[in-house]
Amino acid sequence: xxxxxxxxxxxxxxxxxxxxxxxxxxxxxxxxxxxxxxxxxxxxxxxxxxxxxxxxxxxxxxxxxxxxxxxxxxxxxxxxxxxxxxxxxxxxxxxxxxxxxxxxxxxxxxxxxxxxxxxxxxxxxxxxxxxxxxxxxxxxxxxxxxxxxxxxxxxxxxxxxxxxxxxxxxxxxxxxxxxxxxxxxxxxxxxxxxxxxxxxxxxxxxxxxxxxxxxxxxxxxxxxxxxxxxxxxxxxxxxxxxxxxxxxxxxxxxxxxxxxxxxxxxxxxxxxxxxxxxxxxxxxxxxxxxxxxxxxxxxxxxxxxxxxxxxxxxxxxxxxxxxxxxxxxxxxxxxxxxxxxxxxxxxxxxxxxxxxxxxxxxxxxxxxxxxxxxxxxxxxxxxxxxxxxxxxxxxxxxxxxxxxxxxxxxxxxxxxxxxxxxxxxxxxxxxxxxxxxxxxxxxxxxxxxxxxxxxxxxxxxxxxxxxxxxxxxxxxxxxxxxxxxxxxxxxxxxxxxxxxxxxxxxxxxxxxxxx
Length: 515
Fold this sequence. Notes:
Elements: H1 2-40, H2 47-60, H3 62-83, H4 86-92, H5 97-100, H6 102-139, E1 151-156, E2 159-166, E3 173-180, E4 188-200, E5 206-220, E6 230-244, H7 255-258, H8 267-297, H9 309-312, H10 323-328, H11 332-398, H12 404-429, H13 435-439, H14 441-458, H15 466-492, H16 495-514
Antiparallel strand pairs: 1-2, 2-3, 3-4, 4-5, 5-6
Helix pairs in contact: 1-2, 1-3, 1-6, 2-6, 3-6, 3-11, 3-12, 6-11, 8-11, 11-12, 11-14
């Protein structure tokens, strides 16, 4: 009997889980495509490249989409059981809510553990792959697409091509105009032709240009454009040109040499990276302040300022305490030399400190980011389990299945979780909070909510029953009514209250007359 019920509950959960998983990731994928649609179009990319990019992008979205899918599936499953009175039948048979949810909790724990291995091992690999593909796509130039009457500069910024019309079937170009300013010595060449063909070679390394019935105008400057230049003009019936090209062929880059951020590392690599960054930050901090004070400001063995010996030390061998008074006794030239020397030392000290401070800040920023990613790999699997513990009792309370009410509630919880997570992560990145506090903030807030909902669902609480809230409001109103009547009676005796009541009555009479 018990195994049959558990099998029924488990079967009711797996179907919505798979469905919500694909729905959530479809929505996230549409957002990804909309974000990068400008970079994917007009490059002549193969379908395999786009499919590979979308596949790796989907894996990268698992940390974001899996908690939402788990929450939505849990609400739908328990809501369907409650709506069909199956949950009430199980409880009437003596089964508690936690006993009914036992197989679902096991699945949620397994999903949480599996999500850790996915986030720790698969997501960094997919992140490196997707970023490498996007880098290669950005580096690739657009395909040759000539629009009638417009200049095309996609080949080279110093090579502009304009065609009046292109035959879509044969590719024949009419009235071709080419401005070529690619020569290093400043020579400019203009080509005008009645027709021609422009295409890429099969290996996409050369631009093949064939023109018919045209003229060439070339201005030679010879490095002295301001007083010496010549103009060469010639006509042709057929002219073939070959221009060396680069960037039109999709070339793959080694992602291991290109992507090395904290998001591309697993938890073991992050720990090693954090240890090295800790040492780097300590070294930068020590090397910034110590040498600045010892070598640039408080110097004992070398003469920092170009001062006479009489001004640097007194007769006892110590520094002259009345240095300013002694400087005042020098002539204008000596004082100027001392001031220039002091200014030079101060500028060098500031530049050295600024460089060390910038390096320390960069290392500290990388340290915060690496610590955040380390904690994120642990907090996200826990959030998957917490979202299930929120969704299952919540579905048992609302007793509504389908996609309507569960989606509204799931999105509300997820938006709240996302906002809290972003604020915590931002505070951890800026060093205001520790990485542990910032990355686990959402879990600390949602865990008590999950416990509260489980208690309410176990006790069959009317948490979302509007009639229960209406009855409670009526009770509160009945308790407050005597005190409110006394307050009104006291106010009615005051002159200010009478004036207010009179003005309200006058306004009401005016409205009645207008009506």
